[in-house]
Amino acid sequence: MHAITIPEPGGPEALVWAEVPDPVPAEGEVLVEVVASAVNRADLLQRQGFYDPPPGSSPYPGLECSGRIAALGPGVSGWSVGDEVCALLVGGGYATKVAVPAGQLLPRPDGVDLVTAAALPEVACTVWSNIFMLAHLRPGETLLVHGGASGIGTMAIQLAKAVGARVAVTAGGPEKLARCAELGADILIDYREQDFVEELHKATDGAGADVVLDIVGAKYLDRNIKALAVNGRLVVIGLQGGVKGELNLSALMAKRAAILATTLRSRPPAEKAAVVAAVREHVWPLVGAGTVMPVVDRTVDMTEAAEAHRAVEASSHVGKVLLVAPEK
Which distant-in-sequence residues (6+ apart) come within 8 Å of 155 by Cβ? Predict the structure, then answer.
């Protein structure tokens, strides 16, 4: 098979399309012939040498894919060769084949073509596990999403609206905010021109956000606490703005608030399977009904993965950037 390899860490040019050994599905795994994958920020960090894959996992980038089952490993039931699926991966999505634990498979949703399905697993699992399973966003509450035009953001807006929450977003510029509004965002904040704490308090009569989904990290820590409502929950899932910040514990205690921080890639397979099962139960019916839809900015040939990485690094996209595997 072929895969995007990283012989030496570096810029986008470090991504090299090369022939590599075929994966062999182990106990409880299936072999998927990849049709498409998607670019995530973690892939950029891996390319730069800052986010190594967990021991024993595929060395190739790619945290999600779509495709067709080519073979079943020992002990797999409930799936058949030829099934059209998408999958949450530890790595290896930037390839023509990948071995996947069966618990991390999802059927291609009704109404979504197989290439587009690659836009769903990582964002659906990240958003559902963090906003709903962990932070317990409820109908009538307010969610603040940083990076509303990102893949994570576009999914968070739609799912929060689907359960009856009010959604505030930050994004860079009027065009991205307009796309967020089309998806249902109620409060639009241009982080380049506006202070999100001030704007959020204006829009909520001073109450703030019940849940904040943050991809920035240290840079936003103090302001995120100020933005929280009483009994609010701050969920940190990214560190684009640094890893160390100063926390005002008094402010946190006064609001009876909580800070939660998670990653998805390094979780044990059983935890990932539980998240995937919850997504299949709660999110897949919404996708099938057209209530929630994958947002794809562009598709790029997988052999040109460097181009896709440049687009994501420049934050010139809305939603997901997909990599389409070359046809045989």
Answer: 123, 124, 126, 127, 292, 294, 295
Nearest 5°: CA angle at 275, between 271 and 280? 145
**Residue-wise burial string across 177-199, b where 16 or more C-beta atoms lie within 10 A, e elsewhere:** bebbbebbbbbbbbbeeeebbeb
Q: How is 219-237 classified by DSSP, letter by letter?
A: GGHHHHHHHEEEEEEEEE-
What CA–CA distance (Å, rounded) separates 328 from 325? 9
Cβ atoms of 239 and 218 closer than 8 Å = yes
Please give the average pLDDT of every successive group of 10 residues along the chain, which has 328 residues.
98 98 97 98 96 92 98 97 98 98 98 98 98 98 97 98 98 97 98 97 98 95 97 95 91 96 92 98 98 98 98 95 93
Coil vs helix vs strand at 321 = strand
For the stretch 252-272, what's the b/e string if a residue is b when 16 or more beta carbons lie within 10 angstroms of its beta carbon?
beebebebeeeebbebeeeeb
Q: Packing angle between helix 305-313 and helix 41-48, nearest 10 degrees?
A: 110
Closest by alpha carbon to 319, among 170, 183, 125?
183
Helices of type H across the chain:
41-48, 121-127, 151-162, 174-183, 196-203, 221-227, 249-254, 269-282, 284-288, 305-313
Separation of alpha carbons 41 and 79, rounded Å: 30
Q: How many CB atoms lie within 10 A of CB 50?
A: 10
Decide: helix, strand or coil at residue 31.
Answer: strand
Written as six digits, the tokens of 130 are 């963090």
pLDDT at residue 327, rounded to an integer: 85
Asked if 107 and 132 count as a contact pair (C-beta separation under 8 A), the reply is: no
pTM: 0.95
The CA-CA-CA angle for residues 127, 132, 136, to 5°, reads 145
> Which residue has 């840079």 as its token pair?
219
Give which of 81, 78, 131 is closest to 104, Cα–Cα.
78
